[in-house]
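Notebook entry, structure prediction.
Reason for the run: the old model in the group folder had no record of what sequence produced it. Starting over properly, with the input documented here first.
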Amino acid sequence: MSAPIELWYWPTPNGWKVSIALEEMGLPYVLKPVNIGTGEQFSPAFQAISPNGRMPAIVDPEGPDGQPLPIFESGAILQYLGVKSGQFYPQDPRGKAEVDQWLFWQVGGLGPMAGQTHHFRQYAPALTADQRHLAYGVRRYTNETHRLYGVMDHRLSDRDYLAGDYSIADMAAWPWMLPELQGQDLSEFPNLAAWMARVGARPAVKAGRAVGDDLRRNLAASGAEAAKARAVLFGQRAHQPDR
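New structure, fully documented this time:
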């Protein structure tokens, strides 16, 4: 058996993408928790793997040349795992292009926009002097997330999965579909709702989604510990290297 892949991870939508893929592909892996609420993403050990200071990241101890290969950014990780396993990522140019465009749509659109929706709806503090800025952020990103739901619903009107066959594009998008947290009503998007149920029923998706459930803390909760975690996550600026 191959040496297990190191999964540097915290249970969030971006982390779930990779844990789901590893479960689907049957690749052995070992969990390396990165507590993003206490700043472990800024540790030298993790930033040597992920220079952007964001999880997930992986280290494949048996890379293509037989040497360890670290990879950060969830889209790049999914592509690598698809190639390594030979699963859920077509190698013919047309099929590959179908998957790639929906994978990058998620990485560049659905994830960032839904992430901002989460921020403004779940974590942004109330403004005592002028609430207009907060209200604008909630409306702006909730509406954009609604538009992206519509794009997916239309795409899924004549196919079961985003790129035709089930693929890493579905694994990337599914964890970000959290309609209650994003202010969305799934009854408006019947094709999307059916896809969510279809993907969510897969045993490997259930297993990947459950990875690290015991690690997660609710950052929307009140209390000093939650406030400190929010400050770590949402108050970040450039970290200058030691000189």
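Summary: The chain is about 50% helix and 5% strand.
The old model has been moved to the deprecated folder.
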